[in-house]
Design a protein that fits this description.
alpha/beta; Spore Coat Polysaccharide Biosynthesis Protein SpsA, Chain A; 6 helices; 9 strands; globular
């Protein structure tokens, strides 16, 4: 039986290496990265909330709820995860899990959520994150809503910013994916990455 889980797309970054702006709205071929990511994520979850700071209207065409960080000064992805957990607790109180992903991953696995749950159950850990090749992807993770107050304390009272420091306190399982024919967690950080992602998208179509 599939564990009901809500999706969270983190699009609150500053995109410094791209000269600013929203990486999620960059086009790969004829679709934005966000549209490609949502096409893969949405069938796996009970719904999706988007974490983004600034004017939410720029995401209006996607028809998603948009929640900003509650922690000021761009506190990083942990602040976005906290915002998503708080939104789900307030709006979907029957759901206990949130699966997060960054807004710059156009090739997200279509089995992401089920594999993350399988990993945390197998390792008996409360958290799970993705792994491919030699890399962990801590932003691509599974989060219990019940830990949101602990996360808020870590961010606000301790000034914690590193995801892996916080997840290590509780225990995090790894779900592994192959990197061929494409690393499913390839993310777009530079103009060169846009070109590479466009080539990859053509090869997979």
């Amino acid at each position: 039986m599939r564990t009901r889980t809500f999706g969270l797309v983190l699009a609150g970054g500053l995109a410094r290496r791209m000269g600013g702006g929203d990486k999620a709205l960059i086009r790969i071929g004829n679709e934005t990265i966000l549209a490609r990511a949502l096409a893969r994520l949405t069938p796996q979850v009970s719904g999706v909330v988007l974490n983004a700071n600034g004017e939410p209207a720029r995401f209006a065409p996607f028809g998603l709820p948009v929640v900003a960080d509650s922690v000021p000064d761009f506190a990083g992805p942990l602040a976005g995860i906290l915002a998503g957990l708080d939104w789900v607790a307030a709006n979907k109180p029957d759901l206990e899990w949130v699966a997060s992903m960054p807004g710059d991953c156009p090739f997200l696995p279509r089995d992401l959520v089920v594999r993350l749950h399988e990993a945390r159950k197998a390792e008996e850990k409360p958290l799970a994150c993705a792994h491919s090749g030699d890399w962990r992807h801590p932003v691509v993770g599974l989060w219990p809503v019940a830990l949101r107050d602990d996360l808020r304390h870590a961010i606000v009272d301790e000034g914690l910013r590193k995801i892996e420091v916080w997840t290590a306190r509780h225990g995090v399982a790894l779900a592994d994916w192959p990197t061929e024919p494409v690393d499913p967690f390839f993310n777009v950080n530079t103009p060169e990455d846009v070109e590479k992602a466009t080539r990859l998208a053509l090869s997979l179509s």
